[in-house]
């Protein structure tokens, strides 16, 4: 299991179905999901009566090679889901993936039908990598030899390299950020939020070498998940095997997971009950800031609430599949 | 008369900037539009094949620069690439064997069972054994600090 940890946040439990939240691996720390009072996704979800389990993949250093993407999908996620069910005593769970946590979760849900996943939510998670924008172009196998890069690095892709990649994808972001800070310097609430968010935004985390290799090759370069060619842990992953209710959430100005590559999940799954919503803002604005509290989180929690209200409605949910 | 591209650029920005009696507000809007225009222009350049090619070449140079002893480093890198490809090949063979009904991986039930027993999997249990009051803010950062300590 390596460095992965599962954090449980208990609620008054208005809903029996707990939520397993799967964020990105590496790149950034997961405390963004519980940033500060009034701007915390965890706080919102527990406030809505969901027992919330946050998966922390761990803080990787430059020597970390493992886990691979296959380890995440075929080993870590099934174990974490089993732990959620065991510790909550629930019969089923909802899985909510954010960013790269969404395609990993989608692969896990599709490949593990024996685990009772009642609902799946993809928040800003790329699925059809052919439509994933600049990263797809830059990581094209014609120009980017991932084997050579990982071999040369010897372990993980270090945090400064990750930082450089994300700064490059939107080079004017810092100018815009600091202009807005200057403009709002008189606004204590804004400055408080900025300080917390900026500290997080500049704390980059390395990506383990084995994960990076599979992530780039299988997802970005060969688009195996979307094409039904992914095979992890001896299981073929077909998105059409996802039959539970699905919600996909895209952000209009998301440069990391452009709306089209998120929306692709809706057509790929076998679910009958499925919905795509597109909200204003960028990749981060879905999970951080007071705007998310107004526009995104209530949509997600309301959607889940109607599909995980109580054990008495389990048969209804089955009927919707 | 040939027009100045810089003037044209600012004229385009000003065209999309609503006029306000407050000079600072207008200035802020101009800056916002200017940054957005730069962002769009840079994105267009960065989305080209040429840029991807240039970036790939830069990464290659960077890899080469990492090597304190180019010959040895190069050999090591080549070896590591080969090992990586061997691993991949092994995985494919394993998958083919599994496809033929020969199981080389633990069954999912076995994974779940071992999760109960493994010390790493026991960690989440201890994490979940620290219940938080429903009304309390979930202390993720505090929890992490405790664990680190």
Enumerate the spans of chain A where pLDDT stays under 50 for 5 or more consecutive residues: 311-315, 317-321
How much beta of chain B, percentage-wise?
Answer: under 5%
> Strand sequence of the main sheet of chain A, in spatial order?
1-4-2-5-6-10-11
CATH superfamily of chain A: Alpha/Beta hydrolase fold, catalytic domain
Give me the CATH fold name of chain A: Rossmann fold
Mean pLDDT of chain A: 91
Which secondary structure elements does this structure contain, and how are they paired or packed?
The complex is a heterodimer of chains A (321) and B (149).
Chain A: E1 5-9, E2 19-22, E3 27-28, H1 41-47, E4 52-56, H2 69-88, E5 93-98, H3 101-111, E6 117-123, H4 134-138, H5 146-153, H6 159-169, H7 173-183, H8 188-201, E7 204-205, H9 209-221, H10 224-227, E8 230-232, E9 235-237, E10 246-251, H11 259-268, E11 274-279, H12 290-295, H13 297-305, H14 314-320
Parallel strand pairs in A: 2-4, 2-5, 5-6, 6-10, 10-11
Antiparallel strand pairs in A: 1-4, 3-7, 8-9
Helix pairs in contact in A: 2-3, 5-9
Chain B: H1 5-15, H2 23-46, H3 49-66, H4 70-99, H5 108-117, H6 119-128, H7 140-148
Kindly summarize this structure in a few lines.
The complex is a heterodimer of chains A (321) and B (149). By secondary structure, chain A is an alpha/beta fold. Chain A has a single domain (5-320), classed as Rossmann fold (3-Layer(aba) Sandwich).
């Amino acid at each position: 299991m390596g460095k992965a940890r599962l954090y449980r946040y208990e609620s008054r439990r208005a809903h029996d179905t707990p939520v397993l939240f799967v964020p990105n691996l590496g790149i950034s720390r997961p405390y963004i999901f519980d940033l500060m009072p009034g701007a915390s996704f965890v706080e919102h979800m527990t406030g809505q009566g969901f027992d919330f389990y946050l998966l922390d993949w761990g803080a990787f250093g430059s020597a970390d090679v493992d886990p691979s993407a296959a380890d995440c999908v075929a080993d870590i996620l099934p174990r974490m889901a089993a732990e959620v069910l065991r510790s909550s005593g629930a019969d089923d769970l909802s899985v909510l993936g954010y960013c790269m946590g969404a395609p990993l979760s989608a692969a896990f849900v599709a490949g593990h039908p024996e685990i009772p996943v009642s609902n799946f939510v993809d928040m800003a998670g790329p699925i059809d990598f052919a439509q994933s924008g600049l990263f797809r172009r830059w990581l094209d196998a014609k120009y980017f030899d991932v084997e050579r890069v990982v071999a040369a690095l010897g372990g993980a892709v270090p945090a400064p390299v990750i930082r450089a990649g994300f700064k490059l994808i939107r080079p004017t972001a810092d100018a815009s950020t600091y202009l807005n800070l200057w403009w709002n310097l008189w606004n204590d609430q804004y400055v408080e939020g900025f300080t917390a968010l900026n500290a997080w935004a500049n704390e980059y985390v390395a990506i383990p070498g084995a994960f990076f290799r599979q992530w780039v090759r299988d997802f970005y370069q060969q688009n195996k998940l979307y094409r039904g060619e992914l095979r992890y842990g001896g299981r073929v992953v077909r998105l059409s095997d996802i039959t539970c209710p699905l919600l996909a959430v895209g952000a209009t100005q998301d440069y990391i997971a452009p709306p089209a590559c998120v929306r692709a999940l809706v057509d790929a799954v076998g679910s009958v009950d499925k919905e795509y919503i597109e909200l204003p803002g960028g990749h981060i604005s879905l999970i951080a800031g007071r705007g998310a509290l107004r526009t995104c989180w209530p949509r997600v929690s309301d959607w889940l609430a109607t599909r995980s209200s109580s054990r008495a409605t389990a048969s209804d949910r089955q009927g919707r599949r | 008369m040939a027009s100045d591209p810089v003037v044209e650029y600012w004229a385009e920005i000003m065209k999309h900037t609503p006029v306000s009696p407050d000079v600072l507000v207008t200035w802020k809007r101009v800056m916002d539009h200017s940054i957005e225009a730069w962002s769009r222009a840079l994105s267009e350049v960065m989305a080209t094949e040429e840029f991807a090619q240039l970036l790939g070449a830069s990464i290659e140079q960077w890899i080469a620069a990492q090597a304190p002893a180019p010959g040895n480093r190069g050999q090591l890198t080549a070896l590591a690439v080969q090992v990586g490809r061997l691993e991949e090949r092994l995985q494919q063979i394993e998958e083919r064997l599994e496809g033929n009904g020969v199981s080389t991986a633990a069954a999912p039930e076995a994974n779940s069972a071992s999760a109960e027993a493994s010390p790493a999997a026991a960690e989440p249990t201890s994490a979940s054994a620290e219940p938080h009051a429903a009304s309390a803010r979930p202390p993720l950062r505090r929890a992490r600090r405790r664990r680190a300590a």
